Amino acid sequence: MLSKNMLAEMNEQIKHELFSSYLYLSMSAHFEANNLPGFARWMRLQSQEELEHALKFFDYVNDRGGKVVLQAIAQPQVEFGTAETIFEQVLEHEQFITGRINTLYALAVKEADFASQVFLNWFVNEQVEEEKNATGILETLKMIGDRSTAIYQLDRHVGKRGED
Ligand code: OFO
Question: Which atom of ligand 1 is nearest to 130's Cα?
């Protein structure tokens, strides 16, 4: 059985994961509208991954005898800037999510909730990946600057996500 505090934090995390999914889908829509289909696809896949993250928490709460209570999800941003500023935002958002996972983990340690620690280990590793991926693309975008041919090529490259 999850503690009252842990249940509240996990329900809160479901909201954050769903918002992540919503945010990245909005970024995908932006890239679609700006003729960058590779980035649009990358964001769409990212959005789907975030939905899976939310469902991992959803299932775990149920497995531990808790009740999932879904919360309101804010409207995501609609207007975005350049690809570089978008990936800056992605990295910032993922750093925020890492902070959230750390908060949950710290609570699990404080409560000697070993099952939640094991469950959260997957997310600790995932956040290392998430930050690494966002940083990698952001660094490339910084190198490219506003050279449109290079942005076009990078768009084709990131659009191959999941194909290897
Ligand atoms: Fe992007 O890792 Fe979940 O939120």
Answer: 1
Beta carbons within 8 Å of 55's beta carbon, 6+ residues apart = none
**pTM of the entire predicted model:** 0.95
CA 107 – CA 120 distance, rounded (Å): 11
pLDDT in tens, 114-135: 999 999 999 999 999 999 999 9
Percent of the chain scoring above 90 in pLDDT: 97
Q: Which residues line ligand 1 (CB under 6 A)?
A: 17, 20, 50, 53, 94, 97, 126, 130
Q: Which of 98, 143, 144 is nearest to 124 (CA)?
A: 98
DSSP for 119-141 reads: HHHHHHHHHHHHHHHHHHHHHHH
